[in-house]
Amino acid sequence: LNTKTITNKFHISLKVPSGYLYVLENSNFIWLKKEITSGNLSLIVYQLPYTSIKQNNNAIKRIVKIRDSINGRFIRGAISNTKMVTEAAFSPYFSKIEIAGRKTYETKGSWEMQNDYMNGPFINYCIFDDKNQRILVLEGFCYAPSKQKRDLMFELEAIIKSIQFLKPNKSGKSKLAN
Fold first, then answer.
1. How far is the CA of 139 from the CAs of 10, 27, 71, 72, 136, in angstroms?
2. Per the confidence metrics, is the pTM higher than 0.85?
3. Per-residue pLDDT for the chain (178 aa), expressed as one digit of tens each?
4. From CA 28, how far away is CA 64, in angstroms rounded?
5. Rounded CA separation 83/88 (Å)
6. Helices (H) and strands (E) in the chain — how many of each?
7. For residue 114, what are the CA distances in angstroms to 16, 85, 156?
8. Which of 12, 108, 139, 153 is in Cβ range 3.0-4.6 Å of 124 for a Cys bridge?
9. What's the Cα-to-Cα distance from 89 to each of 60, 94, 112, rounded to whole Å?
10. Which of 168, 101, 156, 99 is nearest to 123 (CA)?
11. C-alpha distances in angstroms, 129 versus 51, 108, 136, 151?
């Protein structure tokens, strides 16, 4: 996959294997999808203002609210009046980690398509990019009914954790940032 669009929009590089295609792209949101036997894998990237998620005990509630708002806006089911939301029956797992030397909130849980019968696991990373005063969100999720999902989620996690932050140089091309 040619990731120049991601690099130009977000000044990052990701190692995305072949098979992924751009599904949706707008000024602040990119959705990649890979079709697999009886399902698909998706990777989304977007950025938020740096102050969108306070670094306190309410972070998980805020992440779920933002996730439901943005994913619900862009990710719809085949039936009208459907949208992706975080499954309410299970509390998402939340932890603080570091990716590419930056503080990151990791959230793992289940998503469902409201008013439809689709669901599956997701993994969401909110990376605090101090230098650019933004929160970069990378999320992977899959839809694969009656199939083991562990290896699929490992693939998405590996793609996300391959992130490298770049900085534009004088020629306008991006180069590796610290």
1. 14, 17, 10, 14, 10
2. yes
3. 889 999 999 999 999 999 999 999 998 899 999 999 989 999 999 999 999 998 777 899 999 999 999 999 999 888 888 999 999 898 999 999 999 999 999 999 999 999 888 999 999 999 999 999 999 999 999 999 989 999 999 999 999 999 999 986 656 566 776 5
4. 19
5. 14
6. 3, 11
7. 29, 7, 23
8. 139
9. 15, 16, 10
10. 156
11. 11, 21, 7, 29
What lies within 8 Å, CB to CB, of 112 at 6+ separation is 84, 85, 86, 87, 118, 119
SS3 at position 61: helix
Supply the pLDDT for residue 9. 94
What length is written for the chain? 178
Give the pairing of strands 134-143 and 29-36.
unpaired
C-beta separation of 92 from 60 below 8 A: yes
pLDDT tens by residue, 82-116: 999 999 898 999 999 999 999 999 999 999 999 88
Indicate the burial class of 124 (C-beta count within 10 angstroms; 0-12, 13-18, 19 or more).
buried
The 8-class DSSP code of residue 70 comes to: H
